UniProtKB/TrEMBL annotation:
Keywords: Cell membrane, Glycoprotein, Ion transport, Membrane, Mitochondrion, Nucleus, Transmembrane, Transmembrane helix, Transport. It is a multi-pass membrane protein. It catalyses: histamine(out) = histamine(in); serotonin(out) = serotonin(in); L-histidyl-L-proline diketopiperazine(in) = L-histidyl-L-proline diketopiperazine(out); spermidine(in) = spermidine(out). This is Solute carrier family 22 member 3. Signal peptide: none annotated. GO terms for molecular function: monoamine transmembrane transporter activity; neurotransmitter transmembrane transporter activity; quaternary ammonium group transmembrane transporter activity. It comes from the Eukaryota. Belongs to the major facilitator (TC 2.A.1) superfamily. Organic cation transporter (TC 2.A.1.19) family.
Length: 562
């Protein structure tokens, strides 16, 4: 019987048709990056202080700027970032009774005088040094005691990712890749608009979960579809390219955020591409592999013929015997198989930890840009540029060196960079930024590598299940990351970097315990994992049986010929 891989030999493993489909589908990664790290701009927390009606009255009467009034009427205090203006308390005084004049506000009351006056809470809300712009933080006053609500915004997205990737993955296996992709994108479009029009923060969190439910699931369906349409030797290249467009989205995001100052309109821009993806109905076929797995052989043959025609290839009559090579393995996979043997337990633990670490460190380093106090647009753009070489370094090293050493090195470099950055003084700004960028490059490489290393270690019978289960730790890491970053930064701004560095170091060390998969055939069964040498012997015996001659007879024949 002929498999789909055999047909691709004739139809083209990566011809014009596959290039067109991959190019179109790579665009799905761009808005996914907007959603994934958009909190840096949508949830930006600018410099803020307590609103005081008395100060507002004086400011309006005297024509002071917001900054002039801030310096003249807000006292200094110690914080985790040093001495800063008070953000969560205001002076408890009647400003009309102070004799403050309009001539020179900065010389009227000294900080020494202000520091001796009684303080009270921000009963009248806050002022924000964010003129002409609005984040959901400034709209809903999510600062001081309510600052942890910002963490919930990103955690809600990751909860949606977690549930959606499993649910939509199941739907894609049951109802088809393209049907699931199209339905998911319509759902994303609707929920994205609901996020943009949320009347309050509770509604925003609910819609954010639903939005996340569709976004990651749709992205994963696209990843599966393009890898199923190309030959085995092109899957890795296609997968890395798909993720490369995520990095391109990271570069576009700060430009969008700079020119779109309102978080609601920025959300609308994030959502519009998902409505555009509905047009893929007319350009992208269903996966022939999935059709074969559902015994829809005629439809699979028609699509395969269309692929061959676009690739300007001619199919022979072997297509008439086309069958699915994986139908037996799909039905026998179970969750407990991931822990069935000692090696599989080790793989599952190490890969799950690496998924978790990659998500925590990657998201943490990006979200950290929003609390450093510099120009967030420039900082984000520079750090995004650093991500681009990651894909090229992976493609350059994995076939020459292997998987294990680059994977481990990427984690260890990221960990070392995080630890070093934490102890570089702020006065050495450019050095601190450069080392942090090296950490960002390292964790980006690790994040991209864990995907295909995960697929190469598990046998065919549980490969999809293994990737799905291990990658759920990525979403759990996404839930933990904002709390880890924002809450620990209140204690010490660099403390999250210490945690990130430790996690990455441990992840890199654990990777060294994994076997090298370069040049090793993909395992088919669990026995292939436990006894790889026996698998090689069986392959040799199979080959000998196919040749209908044992090895010693073959050798004698060669000698006689000589």
């Amino acid at each position: 019987m002929t498999t789909f891989e055999d047909i691709l030999e004739e139809a083209g493993k990566f011809g014009r048709c596959q290039m067109r489909i991959v190019s179109i589908f790579c665009l799905v990664s761009v808005p996914f990056s907007f959603v994934y790290v958009g909190i840096v701009f949508q949830g930006f927390t600018p410099e803020h202080w307590c609103r005081d009606p008395g100060v507002i009255e004086i400011r309006e009467r005297c024509g002071w700027s917001l900054q002039d009034a801030h310096r003249a009427t807000v006292s200094l205090m110690n914080s985790s970032t040093g001495v800063t203006y008070s953000q969560c308390q205001k002076l408890d005084m009647d400003w009309n009774a102070t004799g403050l004049t309009c001539d020179n506000p900065e010389s009227e009351l000294t900080q020494a005088q202000l520091s001796t006056l009684p303080m009270t809470g921000c009963t009248d809300g806050w002022e924000y040094d964010y003129e002409g712009r609005q984040s959901f933080v400034t709209e809903f006053d999510l600062v001081c005691a309510d600052a942890w609500y910002v963490d919930m915004f990103q955690a809600a997205l990751s909860v949606g990712f977690l549930v959606g990737s499993i649910t939509i993955g199941y739907l894609a296996d049951k109802y088809g890749r393209m049907k699931s992709f199209l339905m998911t994108n319509f759902f994303i479009g609707v929920t994205g608009i609901l996020v943009a029009t949320s009347p309050n923060y509770i509604a925003l969190l609910v819609f954010r979960v639903l939005f996340g439910f569709g976004v990651k699931g749709g992205w994963m369906v696209g990843y599966v579809l393009i890898t199923e349409l190309v030959g085995v030797e092109y899957r890795r290249m296609v997968g890395v390219t798909y993720q490369l467009f995520f990095s391109l989205g990271i570069l576009i995001l700060p430009l969008l955020a700079y020119f779109i100052p309102n978080w609601r309109w920025l959300q609308v821009v994030f959502t519009i591409p998902y409505f555009c993806f509905l047009t893929y109905y007319w350009f992208i076929p269903e996966s022939p592999r999935w059709l074969l797995s559902q015994n829809k052989r005629n439809e699979a043959m028609e699509i395969t013929k269309a692929i061959a025609k676009e690739n300007k290839k001619t199919l022979s009559k072997i297509i008439e015997t086309l069958t699915d090579e994986n139908t037996d393995s799909i039905s026998t996979a179970s969750f407990m198989d991931l822990f069935k043997t000692s090696k599989l337990r080790k793989f599952t633990f190490i890969l799950s930890f690496n998924w978790f670490t990659s998500a925590v460190v990657y998201q943490g380093l990006i979200m950290r840009l929003g609390i450093l106090g510099g120009n967030v647009y420039v900082d984000f753009l520079i750090s995004g540029i650093v991500e681009l070489p990651a894909a090229f370094l992976i493609l350059l090293t994995i076939e020459r060196i292997g998987r294990r050493l680059p994977f481990a090195a990427a984690n260890i470099v990221a960990g070392a960079a995080c630890l070093i950055t934490a102890f570089i003084p702020d006065s050495m700004f450019w050095l601190k930024s450069a080392v942090a960028c090296v950490g960002r490059l390292g964790i980006t490489m690790a994040f991209e590598m864990v995907v295909f290393v995960n697929t190469e270690l598990y046998p065919t019978i549980i490969r999809n299940l293994g990737v799905s289960v291990c990658s759920t730790l990525c979403d759990i890491g996404g839930i933990v990351a904002p709390f880890l970053l924002y809450r620990l930064a209140v204690i010490w701004l660099e403390l999250p970097l210490i945690i990130f560095g430790a996690l990455a170091f441990v992840a890199g060390g654990l990777v060294l315990l994994l076997p090298e998969t370069k040049g090793v055939p993909l395992p088919e069964t669990i026995d292939d994992i436990e006894c790889p040498n026996r698998n090689k012997e069986n392959q040799l015996k199979s080959q000998q049986l196919e040749n209908l001659l044992p090895s010693d007879v073959t050798s004698n024949k060669d000698v006689t010929a000589v």
